[in-house]
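We store chain and fold; example below:
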Amino acid sequence: MKICFWEYKLYQSPNLSKIKASFKKIFPKKAVALWGYGTNGNRCQNLFKLAGIKISCIYDNAFSYTKYENGTLYTNFYQTGLKRDYPILISTSYYENEISEQLTSLGFKKNQDFFLFSEIEKAVLNEYFDED
């Protein structure tokens, strides 16, 4: 509930420089890839847009297509494989363990090559609102 309140408060009057600083600590690169295009994926897109971080690719196993739209690749992991150019943020909480195991088996490292939105959202909002 606290996270939902904070997110609502953040969108009411965002301090863009503070949002950017909070995200830059975790994602120093200017782009990320998302895995999951559902509700959390949309929340991620909104937060990254506020932070000025580009989403280079969105993976979702439900995609039966691969397309580029506004500079973002929308694809299914099984169709194109994974790009290692950018960190991956797993935005789906329902499949995060399964996807984490899959990425780990491919040599990706948690909190270095891939991150969980469930953890990042809390960290960024805590940083933004200066909470412990």
Q: What stands out?
A: The beta strands are 31-35, 54-59, 67-69, 72-75, 88-90, 114-116. The chain has one domain: 17-93+102-129.
